[in-house]
């Protein structure tokens, strides 16, 4: 599986394209927030002859969902989230103007992701892991074969997701990291929702929030 990262919107959010040698592609957390960013994403997909087959959100805070409508409409794919984050998603139109975002277009889910189930595309299989704390319905996507983890805002390089937003809980987040992520092999590469990649082993050793 190849992982292509774009950093979009004023929150510097990481949008990921997951694709393999079949050219089937999954879009995770599209944060594209204006015409230029939309076209940047669309051009890469077209230039690499990718076929978008799924649209996934790790969680539904505003910076991770701004491009949901664009991707859903452009590629005729339904949005998939965890059901416990529906309330998080539905709250966005209320608070978007506070962040100076007046053009937000809501895209509601077509189906729900469940822990223990798998996301399959092309020759690739991702495991869905439920990891709440930053958001009530936060999930991460683990590729066991490649030892890669699309982690959203659960775990960052020597940091963790904030828990002061509605639905956040610090102890729940720490428990998710310890019981869901730190049980993965140390060599797993973590692709976070903001900032650079890290590894499970590095975070076990150096993350100050998890000493």
From TrEMBL:
Question: Where do the Metallo-beta-lactamase domain residues begin and end?
Answer: 12-194
Key word Transmembrane helix present: no
Gene Ontology MF: a single term = hydrolase activity
Which CDD domains is this protein grouped with? metallo-hydrolase-like_MBL-fold
Q: Does the keyword Hydrolase apply?
A: yes
Keyword set, alphabetical order: Hydrolase, Metal-binding, Zinc
Q: Which InterPro entries does the UniProt entry name for this protein? A: MBL_Glyoxalase_II, Metallo-B-lactamas, RibonucZ/Hydroxyglut_hydro
Superkingdom as given in the UniProt entry: Bacteria
Q: Which cofactor does it need?
A: Zn(2+)
State the protein's name.
MBL fold metallo-hydrolase
Q: Which organism is it from?
A: Pontibacter fetidus
